Amino acid sequence: MEVDSNGHGHTGGDWPNRWSHLSQVLTRKGPFSHPNFQAGPETLSLVRDMVRLCIIGAGGLGCELLKNLAYMGFRNMHVIDMDTIDVSNLNRQFLFRPNDVGKFKAEVAADFINRRIPGANVKAHNGMIQDFDEDFYRQFHVIICGLDSIVARRWINGMVLSLVTPGEDGQPPTGVIPIIDGGTEGFKGHARVILPGMTACIECTLDLYPPQVNFPLCTIAHTPRLPEHCIEYARILLWPKENPFGGEETSIDGDDPNHISWIYEKALERANHYHITGVTHRLTQGVVKRIIPAVASTNAVIAAVCAMETFKLTTSCADPLNNYMMFNDSEGIYSYAYEAEKNEKCLACSRRTQTLNFGKTKKLQDLIEYLVNQASFQMKNPGLTTNIEGKNKTLYMPNVASIEAATRHNLKKTLDELGLTSGSELVVADSTSPRPLIVKLNLED
Amino acid sequence: MLNLFSLKNEQKEQGGDGSGSGGATKGKKNSAAQLRITKDINELELPKTCRTEFPDPDDLLNFKLLISPDEGFYRGGRFTFSFKIGPNYPHEPPKTKCLTKVYHPNIDLDGNVCLNILREDWKPVLTINSIVYGLQYLFLEPNPEDPLNKEAANELQANRRLFEQNVHRTMRGGSINGVYFERCLK
């Protein structure tokens, strides 16, 4: 097949037939094509030149993702990671070499891909996802997550949800940026596709994430049976009591060898006392840092699925995963896909926002009376909070005596005096609804 | 299914005003964790033996709970607990400590509390209210089977009367086995 006859203007350095495989998929319709799919060279140029991807995390999954997506033909990618490279990463995070230890993961990964794959244009951000605002994330077509943290997942989930504008009169919503979320834990993994506001989001399925392993405190304190119990004893009970490194309650740093050694020695002492074997320096660090051994092959499988979903979403060449795939190869191989359902009570994606026009010289008391008396609200005893310049502010909460007393004076203040402006969002919690209502103020003179 | 790129184009057509309204709310979004805690706090239904104290009413993530049991061994005492709610609530439970030194089988002398829903049995469906009731229950029914203060637990199992006397002595401000307990009677 003549591949480059339909290619145009791509940068030099392509190897022969680089695009032949993609062309076979993208330049003709197949039985599994999505109805929106337009076969032709434009779709290929979409992948190569137009699509902008954001990859969050440049660790085990991130290295795989960057490599897969770049070889697939995606060129414009940003990668965000706040971490630096540790020696223990090198066995599976194959974009890093021994002399990269200590450098930023995002930077080293981006450099490697840009050097290795002709045309790749990966931009690194050594920092936290929280460092970037709406305008930054709005530039991407798909966000792909290779994260090990639930807090970070919840944050990016909240971010993409805030970019969605609901469609009016039955029109589809705008500003939808899909998240493709991959995750692994040892031999287990998942990949999922989230169309924010349309399909189940991270918060909808929060109880799917395995809880942290916590041992009962009384077992740790008095009836230890496992080496982990001894380590937790040193970490939870001894550390705060003895505060071995002085200062104002130094918190434990799992990367500080002195901290780990102290916990290890105390744990070993306790283990000997109870005739428990198995407390090692390595296990101590594992328990303190809650390390779950990462398996390179699981990362490879999950990253491959995520890359494939990115390709399907951006080109429409096939239906995307709907919407959750789990994978387990601890004994044989098991994989299953199902549709995670949207939670109608979800605090993130089913949030109800209502715009309210109100005079800015009206008092908070008037607003509360309006929420109680107005037929469309009919609230009983609403509590109101807001966020002013990034800081939470409790406006009034009638049900909690101490907060009520401390916020009562706000009732007599005007909305203007309280620092509220047009666009301010009030969180209104009331017993009449299972989830808070977001009231967006539009203040009139 | 949505067509990503037709959506993208619409967004561009909307141009300035679309991003303008986005800019107005920049940094003012309430996280799901914040919404959840607002709801939890607003819907607290405290038993009459409990009250909360919020040192900073704008900060719903750090507060104190005061329990004054009106029956059981600990009747007449007042016990203060600190609550710290992290950014991963409700995936992770709040951190709770007893600030009042208490002679209790399930609370150690450093204020650590052994209550299953605070650790191994926490679930996101539970609320602050569940913990309040759990803590109140600890004072009504101290559980010597899962001790954190072993001496107190042994005493409760061996001699209920003596345990009760010890509780009263410590609540009035007194020593047991060389440990001094500050007075916490109301």
From TrEMBL, chain A:
Record pathway:
Protein modification; protein neddylation
**Where do the catalytic residues lie?**
C218 (glycyl thioester intermediate)
Instruction: From the UniProt record, list the reaction(s) this protein catalyses.
Output: ATP + [NEDD8 protein] + [E1 NEDD8-activating enzyme]-L-cysteine = AMP + diphosphate + [E1 NEDD8-activating enzyme]-S-[NEDD8 protein]-yl-L-cysteine
Q: List the keywords (alphabetical).
A: ATP-binding, Ligase, Nucleotide-binding, Ubl conjugation pathway
One GO cellular-component annotation of the UniProt record comes to: cytoplasm
Q: Which InterPro entries match?
A: E2-binding, ThiF/MoeB/HesA, ThiF_NAD_FAD-bd, Ub_act_enz_dom_a_sf, Uba3_N, Ubiquitin-activating_enz, UBQ-activ_enz_E1_Cys_AS
- State if ATP-binding is listed as a keyword: yes
Q: Is the keyword Ligase in the record?
A: yes
| Domain E2 binding, residue spans | 356-444
Q: What does the record give as EC number?
A: 6.2.1.64
Q: Which family does it belong to?
A: Belongs to the ubiquitin-activating E1 family. UBA3 subfamily.
Say what the protein does: Catalytic subunit of the dimeric E1 enzyme, which activates NEDD8.
Q: What is this protein called?
A: NEDD8-activating enzyme E1 catalytic subunit
Q: Native species of this protein?
A: Tigriopus californicus
TrEMBL record, chain B:
Q: For bias kind Gly residues, which ranges apply?
A: 16-25
Q: Which leading EC class covers this enzyme?
A: transferase
UniProt catalytic activity: [E1 NEDD8-activating enzyme]-S-[NEDD8 protein]-yl-L-cysteine + [E2 NEDD8-conjugating enzyme]-L-cysteine = [E1 NEDD8-activating enzyme]-L-cysteine + [E2 NEDD8-conjugating enzyme]-S-[NEDD8-protein]-yl-L-cysteine
Asked whether the UniProt record includes Nucleotide-binding among its keywords, one would answer yes
Q: What is its EC number?
A: 2.3.2.34
Annotated PANTHER family: UBIQUITIN-CONJUGATING ENZYME E2
Its name, as the record gives it, is: E2 NEDD8-conjugating enzyme
Lineage here is: Eukaryota, Metazoa, Ecdysozoa, Arthropoda, Crustacea
